[in-house]
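Notes to self, DUF1508 domain-containing protein:
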Amino acid sequence: MAGKFEIYQDRAGKYRFRLKASNGQIVASGEAYESRSNARKGAESVQNAAAGATIVEVES
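result:
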């Protein structure tokens, strides 16, 4: 089973998304949005960007 994005309303009434792995563990979460549709767009943006993303190690 693949991971999934969940769109939900937080305690402050804002909408957020989180990415859950197939084992149910949260592996990423998004910022607060005013509307459910904007939270969905945020999740879709991450989904599209991640497809071709590379991993880069940054030295501090």
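- The two ends are 36 Å apart (CA to CA).
- DSSP finds one helix and three strands in the chain.
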